[in-house]
Design brief:
heterotrimer, A alpha/beta (324), B mainly alpha (282), C mainly alpha (323), A: 324 residues, alpha/beta, Rossmann fold, 4-stranded antiparallel sheet, C: 323 residues, mainly alpha, MetI-like fold, 2 domains, 15 helices, 78% helix, globular
């Protein structure tokens, strides 16, 4: 099957007064149609930056140092503002992390939905049409009282409701690619389940391919088909979720899975990994994870490990793993 | 220290500010001795002479003479004293009032806090002119009226900022630790709270001098400061001659502008290096 | 609610201070109102007539009662109702203040938005530069410079006075008389431009900061990805949010504008309340001083209440907070 999105050797650097930060350093992956690809990792590993760079919504300080992002064979990194405006919404849509500030605080929900409807239809709509279709949309995201919500302002809605409104907007525009940047992080755990359900239905019922950014393994477990583990701006392991879950190969991935508290674990001891993320402006010559790694050898200090294919779509960047 | 030099190299503006401030302070302190003429010495045969760069001007009277034959340049230098005296004394009054009330308000809270904050709201709303007028109505048009008026106008700015800082500091762990160890409130305030807010006080003090000079010269201009040797009053006196001797009203104003600019340049820079978050509140 | 309480407290405090002016000032108010040759009995009678023989609190309450009905007694100089004199001069000051605010806002908003969009560019630095200079310039001096430049040297605009006044000028428009309106405008330009510069600079700074802050928020990104054109994003989304705190700014600066109006009125011989108050001050016309101070204070309080109402109207978060 032809991939929907191809990220090839993406490099995003931030130049600041304190030096150059390599936020994303040679990241590559592909997204197939109708699959959920998850980027997982600690805060600061570059996953949100990846999402925003696909949307080309990074700030002025970010420099695209190299790479291509191909969506249906068009390099998104080469597009001008006008062309981006065409693509935004219709081809890609992003659901942001913080529902509190994703919606305009002084506009009623009906007005904000109206904007989306106008984009969809490409013509102005009458008030009644906006209300009817808006309520229809809200029903599709499981909002039980759509009429009331339409007349409200964002601050009157709960976090979960706001996130549903955002998803509703996405549903309306029906893009081929939906990016979800930590969609449930800011929500109560009781609401998270429902939103996750909603997101899963988007893939199955509406055939939307998804890139999911998260640091929560629970969320990743429920939604992803394939995942990529990111560390310090690089992908260290990539593959089908079930494969990685059963047999994580990269020491970092192993450490991550081990540190999840499982209900059946008898020990009271929480596994952790020593050390912290390296300074993104002073990255080492060799493997970035080396200083925290239990199995590192001298070669790890000297050379960056390339991503190697272990078969079965399982890729790893580590010198110490033999590819069979 | 080295970092300071690097910062200054990138943005040399505050150096100009410091130079101006030092010059003005120097003139305020020693001006009366260094001025070429006695600022009050009248010479009616030599009235309304223009500055040296104009036809009819001469180097003896650099900036010309006024309607009573007095040397404008000397009056300019000696006028510095009034502006600086008002600037610094009013700023001090505001500081004493504002910091003490603000700290007490933030630290102790309660009814005191509520009352003080209402007072601050009222003071911030009223124009400084009204306060000055009330004072002049009672005391009369003197220098002291302006000093007190400006002090009363500016204290509320201190109070608001100091109070909010004190509030945040109050919850900091080291304060709570000191309390647990049994230090008295006064001791905590002096030893722990005060050193943390001293930077803010310095910034506000410097920036306020500029504003005070602007307002106080305006008050002198309309005569509320009495007929003294001051820039504001000289500008007022020169108004009638604005069509013939325009320099009488223009030059002292330039002095005000440069002085305030100096304090603002320096004050802004101080704020940026000591506590940039202040720029949201000031 | 809290603003209402503050307003009432302000008025009460103001009334007490204004009332006390006569009593704190050294000298006997009764004697001051009488000619020099008055005898002791005349002074005593005057004191009785003025109610000065009563306890202070009673005097205050009587004064307050009259003040609420806008009766401050007669001006010593002009010999008729102080409050009437004040109200006659008030429109001029309001015209000047209002024109300054309108002018400042009109210029500051577009320039502020522009500086925010083109942040850190040459334009932005130019704006910061000009702001710094503007905040260091004494307004009364600037007014005189304007007069020298635009009136005396260029001859474009009149140097002093109000001319026919804007209200009259507008009323004349209806009968087809453009010249009066034009003359009123010409007289208004320099004073309001002078008074407005301070407000303009402060407004500019706030607008720029506010727009800058809004531009960084997520809802702007949401709006953009909905495909909305950049201009609409700016106008409909960003500016509507950015301008809300600006109502607060106006409130904070009202005092400065009215206070500055007093001074500018002197500079331009503008026949407003400021000039009136200062003249009254120098001849110690206490009824007039009290009337002016109190009514100006009351006016400020009313403006605050109006601004509060405006705030509620434009920020939906305030009303609906109760639901």
């Amino acid at each position: 099957m032809e991939p929907l999105l191809q990220v090839q050797h993406l490099k995003i650097y931030y130049s600041t007064a304190y030096g150059v930060f390599k936020a994303i350093d040679d990241v590559s992956f592909t997204l197939k149609k109708e699959e959920t690809f998850c980027l997982i990792g600690e805060s600061g590993c570059g996953k949100s930056t990846t999402a925003l760079s696909i949307m080309r919504m990074l700030g002025d300080h970010a420099r695209i140092e190299g790479g291509r992002i191909l969506l249906e064979n068009v390099d998104l990194l080469q597009l001008g503002k006008k062309e981006l405006k065409q693509i935004w919404g219709k081809k890609i849509f992003i659901i942001f992390q913080d529902p509190m500030t994703s919606l305009n605080p002084v506009m009623k929900i009906s007005n904000q939905i109206r904007e989306v409807l106008i984009r969809k239809e490409n013509k102005p709509l009458r008030k009644r049409e906006v209300m009817e279709r808006g309520m229809e949309l809200l029903k599709q995201v499981d909002i039980s009282d759509p009429k009331r919500v339409m007349d409200q302002f964002p601050h009157q809605l709960s976090g979960g409701m706001k996130q549903r409104v955002m998803i509703a907007m996405g549903v309306c525009l029906n893009p081929s690619l939906l990016i979800l940047d930590e969609p449930t992080t800011a929500l109560d755990s009781t609401i998270q389940f429902k939103i996750i359900e909603l997101i899963r239905n988007l893939k199955t019922e509406r055939k939307m391919s998804q890139i999911l950014i998260t640091h929560d393994f629970g969320v990743a477990a429920k939604l992803s088909d394939r995942i990529a583990v990111m560390y310090a701006g690089k992908i260290v392991e990539q593959g089908r979720y079930l494969v990685l879950l059963k047999e994580p190969v990269h020491p970092y991935t192993q450490g991550l899975f081990k540190s999840i508290v499982k209900p059946e674990s008898k020990s009271a001891y929480l596994e952790t990994m020593p050390g912290t993320l390296p300074n993104l402006s002073q990255l080492p010559k060799g493997c970035y994870f080396e200083s925290r790694c239990k199995i590192s050898k001298s070669i790890c200090r000297e050379h960056e490990p390339p991503l190697r294919d272990l078969g079965n779509e399982h890729l790893v960047a580590c010198h110490q793993i033999d590819s069979e | 220290m080295r970092r300071l030099f690097r910062l200054l190299k990138r943005n040399p503006a505050p150096i100009l500010g410091i130079i101006i401030i030092l010059t003005v302070l120097f003139a305020a302190l020693f001006g009366t001795h260094l001025a070429p003429f006695d600022p009050d010495a009248m010479d009616l045969s030599n009235r309304l002479k223009p500055p040296f760069w104009m036809k009819d001007g001469n180097w003896k009277h650099l900036f010309g003479t006024d309607m009573l034959g007095r040397d404008v340049f000397s009056r300019l230098i000696c006028g510095t004293r009034e502006s600086i005296v008002i600037g610094i004394s009013s700023s001090f009054i505001a500081l004493l009032l504002g910091v003490s009330l603000g700290m007490r308000s933030g630290y102790l809270g309660g009814i005191f806090d509520i009352v003080v904050m209402r007072l601050v709201d009222i003071m911030l709303a009223l124009p400084p002119i009204m306060i000055a007028i009330v004072l002049v109505a009672i005391i009369g048009p003197h220098l002291i009226s302006i000093i007190i008026a400006m002090g009363l106008t500016m204290w509320s700015e201190y109070a608001k900022v100091i109070r909010s800082r004190t509030l945040t500091l109050k919850e900091e762990s080291f304060i709570l630790a000191a309390k647990v160890l049994g230090s008295s409130n006064l001791r905590i305030v002096l030893k722990h709270v005060f050193p943390n807010i001293i930077y803010i006080i310095i910034v506000i003090f410097t920036l306020q001098i500029g504003t005070i000079i602007l307002w106080s010269t305006a008050l002198s201009f309309i005569g509320l400061g009495g007929v003294t040797l001051s820039w504001g009053w000289d500008i007022a006196a020169g108004r009638i001659y604005v069509s013939t001797a325009w320099w009488l009203s223009t030059i002292p104003g330039l002095a005000i502008f440069v002085t305030v600019l100096g304090f603002n340049l320096f004050g802004d820079w101080l704020r940026d290096i000591l506590d940039p978050s202040l720029s949201k509140e000031l | 609610m809290s603003r209402a309480i503050t307003s009432i407290l302000t008025l009460i405090l103001l009334s007490i201070i204004v009332f006390l002016i006569i009593h704190i000032t050294p000298g006997d108010p009764a004697r001051m109102m009488l000619p020099m040759e008055s005898t002791k009995e005349d002074v005593l009678e005057m004191r009785k007539a003025l109610g000065l023989d009563q306890p202070l609190v009673v005097q205050y309450l009587i004064w307050l009662k009259n003040a609420i009905r806008l009766d401050f007694g007669s001006s010593i100089r002009a010999k008729y109702s102080a409050s009437k004199i004040f109200l006659e001069r008030l429109p001029a000051t309001l015209e000047l203040s209002f024109a300054s605010i309108v002018l400042s806002v009109l210029f500051a908003i577009p320039i502020g938005v522009f500086a925010a969009i083109k942040r850190s560019s040459v334009w932005d630095f130019a704006v910061s530069f000009v702001s710094l200079f503007s905040l260091s310039t004494p307004r009364f001096w600037l007014g005189i410079l304007f007069i020298i430049f635009f009136s005396l040297w260029l001859g474009w605009l009149p140097p002093y006075g109000r001319g026919p006044g804007l209200f009259y000028g507008i009323s004349q428009l209806f009968i087809g008389d453009y010249m009066t309106f034009y003359s009123a405008l010409k007289h208004l330009v320099l004073p309001s431009a002078t008074l407005g510069t301070w407000f303009f600079t402060i407004f500019l700074k706030y607008t720029r900061a506010s727009v800058l802050e809004e531009l960084g928020k997520l809802y702007v990104k949401t709006a953009r990805q909905k495909g909305i054109g950049e201009l609409r994003v700016l106008l409909v989304h960003v500016i509507r949010n950015a301008l809300i705190p600006i109502v607060t700014v106006i409130g904070l600066q009202i005092g400065s504008v009215l206070g500055g109006a007093v001074i500018i009125e002197i500079v331009f011989s503008w026949p407003g309340v400021g000039q009136l108050l200062l003249q009254a001050l120098f001849v110690r016309d206490y009824p007039l001083i009290q009337a002016s101070l109190f009514m100006v204070g009351a006016m400020i309080v009313v403006i605050f209440i109006l601004l509060d109402i405006l705030y509620v109207l434009i920020d939906p978060r305030i009303i609906y907070k109760t639901t």
